[in-house]
# Entry
Amino acid sequence: MSTLDAATLDDLRDALAEVEDKKPTQRLMAVINYLEEDDATMAEVAERYGYTGPWLSRWVGRLDRLADEPVEQVAYDDPREGRPTELSDEQHKRFVKALYESPEEVGLDAPAWSVPLARHYLAEEFDV
# Structure
């Protein structure tokens, strides 16, 4: 059973009062629930939040740093760069506009949009 070595449940509750986003709130709540429920396994608690036992184990360890580090560095993810967009701003606007129309209105033989049809449209119209 993973436990906190440095941080306390009060540290976690204080951090919970400070966070505003969904993911940090879930992380803190999951760890608090796990530590407060004697008979619960990590997998059981993590499943309530849509995650796995190893996910919860990592967060127990990471949130233990709350004893020495600010909540912003512990409960939140570091910003990450995403993959660069392949569409220009103008192409993106045209694509979104097309999605608001029926596929037939943009020259496709289908009654409604689907993910595969949208991919096909992107490939044909914008060569991506």
Remarks:
- The chain has a mean pLDDT of 90.
- The radius of gyration is 22 Å.
